[in-house]
Amino acid sequence: MSITSIAGGAAAAIGAVAATPARDDPRYAQIVDTLVSPDATQAQRDHAYDLVAGLETADDTPLTDAVLTERAAQAIADDRTIPVVVAEVAPLVAPGTALGPFPSSDAAAIDMMTYSNPLSIAANLENGGLIFRDPDGNHFFVTTPMGGTLDGFDPGQVPQPDGMALVACYHGHADYSKTDGSRTDKAGDEFNSDHFSAQDKRLADRGFWGSVIYVSTPSGDFRKYDAATRQDTVIN
Ligand SMILES: [Zn+2]
Question: Which of 20, 93, 146, 219 lies 20 to 30 Å from 157, alpha-carbon distance?
Answer without folding.
Answer: 219
